[in-house]
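Running this now, will post back.
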Amino acid sequence: MAVIYINGISHSIHLDACLIDILKEVSLDQSRGIAVAVNNEVVAKANWQSYLLNDNDHITVIRATQGG
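Update: finished.
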């Protein structure tokens, strides 16, 4: 097992987990208008399926909002 952080909250994961697995677990995989960064580097949505996570990775999820 490994520990990762999503927006500062710790989550336990299996060592072979990819980014999409974790986003599914927290119900963000189908969200529109989100950007995801791992350790302050943006990960393109096309790469979520293959991006493998490591122990102590910090994931930041940002939602786009409308307004003006």
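The CA atoms of residues 21 and 27 lie 10 Å apart. More later if anyone needs it.
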